[in-house]
Amino acid sequence: MLKIISSPGRAIYAKQKHLNVKDDVNVLWFNLEDSINSENLESILRWYNTQDNYIFLDCTKEHSELKHVVDKYKKVVKTLSINDDNVYWVTSNTNDKKFVKNHIYWEMFLTAVKEMTPDRGEVDLHSQWKRFSKKFICYNGRNRPWRRELYRYIKDRELVLSPQHSIPELLLSEMKYIFRHNDVEQKGNTHKAWNIFKDLSYDYEYWLVTETVAGDDHHGHVFLTEKTFKPILLKMGFVIAGRMGVLKKLRDLGFKTFSDYWDESYDTIDWWPDRRDALVKTIEDIILDDVHVPLDILEYNYNVLKDHSADLELKNTLANLTPL
Fold this sequence. Notes:
The protein is built from ten helices and eleven strands. The chain has helices at residues 41-45, 70-80, 108-114, 145-155, 170-173, 226-233, 246-252, 272-288, 295-307, 312-319; strands at 2-6, 27-31, 54-58, 87-91, 103-105, 134-140, 158-160, 166-168, 175-179, 204-210, 237-241.
């Protein structure tokens, strides 16, 4: 039996019904809320039978490394007499394998977007070749300060076309930036709205992805969320404002990016302000040169998403558990 325990306010992105265990195996699956650095593990685990159940700690929503919680966890294991052999940590960070006995790598957000495929009509790329209303769209639920700063940076930029004249705010006229909520404080939880978006690919050719993290203070871990996989589902071109190496990680996952068609060197720049400048220059070039997305790559990426086995290690681990 698989029992799911979610922290209050924790949004469940990937459907848990894809996780199956044998009838005589008992698993407690904990969806941890917020950063695992601040989780009070003892307060979570002490209310449950940790002796006769496997414990799965799902940290896939966070981008922190487990090394910051290991010492606290060891104390909890001792206090509650937990058998560490029966505890599994589930994260999207391969570095975490170094810090705990049992670690499972799972790109949960990839699985979550993949699960949307059967519920959506497949985009017909060959019917798309009309005049798009705008080149770019940027769509977000959370009005994070760094996203507002990026938007202002794009909005206020001038593209100099010749010594004689320039076009102020050319980029703004070629893109649309959407927040689900405009309040700076973000007083409501917007996670439930993450998969409510129309098929934008018939109106916009490119998606400017603004990932959860763009700065350089998260231990070198490249963390991808549903934001990166949305344009792949919609068969759209994309550039990504995120940590250094986001495009490399996508390629490592089997997807193709667009370095043969525009400059993707921004992905190799370590410092965010310089990476931002290079990213915006790439957007400028795509707009000014009227670059169109290569259909073969869009189709290829969609098929990789549809068939990706991002949760294979997790499924195999659960299937091979034996009764305690």
